[in-house]
Amino acid sequence: MFMNIRQSLLLVVVFGGRLGMATEFPDVAALPSRPELPDPLVMLDGTKVTTAEDWVARRRPELKQLFQHYMYGFLPPKPQKMVVEQVLFTDDRFLDGKATISESRLAFFGPDLKHRLHVMLVVPNKRSGPVPVFVAMNFCGNHAIANHPQIHVPESWVYKSCGGSVNDHATEAGRGTQAGDWNLDLIIDRGYGFACFCSGEIDPDTPEFSDGIEPAFYAPGQTSPKGDDPGTIATWAWGFHRVVDFLLVQQSQPIDEKRIISIGHSRNGKTALLAAAMDERIGLAIPHQAGCGGTAPDRVPLDSKKVETIERINTHFPHWFCDNFPLFNRVPEKLPFDQHCLIALCAPRPVLLSNAVEDQWANPDGQFEMLKAADPVYRLLGVGGLGATEQPELQKLVNSRLGYYIRPGRHSMTREDWGAFLDFADKQLGNP
Ligand code: GCU
Fold first, then answer.
1. How far, in Å, is the centroid of ligand 1 from the Cα of 358?
2. Ligand 1, closest atom to CA 313?
3. What pLDDT is stored for residue 229 in this prediction?
4. Which atom of ligand 1 is the closest one to the Cα of 270?
5. Which pLDDT score is estimated for 24?
């Protein structure tokens, strides 16, 4: 039914259940100081985790709660109902006839959100079965990613730095301006699909939440977030999850539900990792140059100028994390986890950390240490972890379940990066 164009209320999905809420955790002052990396295989109460069953039943849920309580805030619950209001268009002649592109508009109820989410989906026309699909959050709108005249120009806030941005809003002039970052032709040639959405449609990257979806989830009478209410990154991760919901219910394109890959660059990479850590439907995560608050350690010297500290990130981007997180600004050693635990939450699923030499702000060396420290969890689950003890040479992909890649150059996403992403996905999930 979903193939027909311009039908409204094409698909209504009713979800059951809400996410579990936090158990009680100590105040920051009562947490022990742990300058060393916390052992991912030791529970908060000191109990050692020695079996895969204990990891899955006890430690993994505990870590999910800890990250949400102290750092990101609790992701908003899945709304009770999602409606595919409209398939805006479908074009099977995209990329010289190699791909079919479409865009759908999603609405959410229970709570009723005024926000609408536009999901662009591109799949290869030549395929032998269901296609693995990258799910990405973008900065500037779907129309910036693919140069196609019918893609919706978002009405929401976008960054000033986006091509064609006027008064913090996207315009026609932005069409295709980020196509060079996303390399859809390469993705399609290699047999993958690609879905994306724009972060501003969920929550504009501004220091307050009135323009995002957050207030819709507040308790009656609540006007501002409490300590572990979601920051913007948690809310964006919710957006990834809604796109996964959509991919799994839509019938028009053959998606391989075991091979859904979350990907994002920088702040969007932090989000892509959190989304995968919190949702096992995501089969692989590529947080590209994600750095502090994502893939790089929280435990770095407080006065570091070279790599970003949590104090810097909480000062410059006070809305990214929950209000509990800045309490650790001067005492990161009190955090009951570090970012290796977020990576470990993805186990046994593959994770690739990719970096650039000139992007020291994102702490590429520290990120490699995070992989090493996540490795024991992968081993406990009986899958290989990180297949290297030292950082690889430049442009040499460590293509193990925990992967690492670093190239010369700066903070950006390039065609070469995509070559590494696709090689990683081919090996870790199977070549489509
Ligand atoms: C800033 C910020 C980083 C972030 C980056 C980005 O540099 O300090 O944490 O990753 O912006 O999102 O581009």
1. 14
2. 8
3. 97
4. 10
5. 87
Q: What is the structure's pLDDT at 13?
A: 53
CA–CA separation, 133 and 151 (whole Å)? 19
Tokens standing for 372? 């090493």
Which ligand 1 atom sits closest to the C-alpha of 268?
12
Q: What is the pTM of this model?
A: 0.96
Average the pLDDT over 311-339 and give the result: 98
pLDDT higher than 90, residue 241: yes
Task: List Cβ neighbours of 51 (8 Å cut-off, separation of 6 or more).
Answer: 380
Q: Which of 104, 98, 148, 146 is nearest to 124 (CA)?
A: 98
Q: What six digits make up the tokens of 141?
A: 């709108």
- Give 108 Cα–ligand 1 centroid separation in angstroms: 30
Confidence check: pLDDT of 15 > 70: no
Pocket of ligand 1 from Cβ distances under 6 Å: 266-267, 291-293, 308, 313, 361
Residue to substitute in 181, 266, 271, 306 for testing ligand 1 pocket (most ligand atoms within 8 angstroms of CB): 266
Instruction: Choose which residue among 160, 305, 308, 321 to substitute to test ligand 1 binding: the one with the highest number of ligand atoms within 8 A of its C-beta.
Output: 308
Q: What is d(CA 5, CA 311) in angstroms, rounded to the nearest whole number?
A: 49
Q: Residue 20: its pLDDT value, please?
A: 45
Angle 397-398-399 from CA coordinates, rounded to 5°: 95
Using CA atoms, how far apart are residues 285 and 274, in angstroms rounded to an integer?
9
Known active-site residue 411 = yes
The pLDDT tens digits for 374-410 are 999 999 999 999 999 999 999 999 999 999 999 999 9
Comparing CA positions, the residue from 302, 262, 241, 325 lying closest to residue 66 is 325
Confirm whether 266 is a catalytic residue. yes
- C-alpha span between 135 and 262 (Å, rounded): 5
Catalytic one of 104, 165, 252, 266: 266
Q: How far apart are the first and last CA of the chain?
A: 27
Evaluate if residue 1 carries a pLDDT over 60: no
Domains of the chain by start residue, with CATH = 2-72 (no CATH), 118-429 (3.40.50.1820)
The kind and range of the H/E element at 353 are strand 351-356
Q: Region 109-115: what's the mean pLDDT?
A: 98
Query: Is the per-residue pLDDT at 17 higher than 50?
Result: no
Tokens found for residue 160: 């000033």
